[in-house]
User: What shape does this take?
Amino acid sequence: MEFLIFILGYLVGMQLIAIFLTVRDKRSAKKNRWRVKESTLLLVSALGGSIAMLLTMNLIRHKTQKKKFMIGIPIIIVLQVAVIAYVLFVM
Assistant: This one.
C-alpha cells in the first residue's frame, strides 16, 4: 500500500513539474528570456509528466508546431501505458 501511495505521489509531482516547466517556457519565450531546454521538457514527459505536458501544451498553444513534441509525447504516453499494462497484467 505504501508503494502505491509513493507511485501516485511521484506521478502527481511529475505532472505538476511538467505543467510548471511548460508554462515557464511559454512565458520565457514571450519575454525573450532563458528557455527550458527541449531535452528537459521531453525528459520530464518521459519520467511521468507526459499527460499534463501534452494537455498544457495544447491549452496554452506552446510547442504545438513542433513535430518532436506533437508526435513524441503521444508516443511516450503509449509506451507508458504499455509498460503499466505489462506490469499489471503480465507480472
About this structure: The radius of gyration is 14 Å. The chain has one domain: 2-89. The chain is about 80% helix and 0% strand.
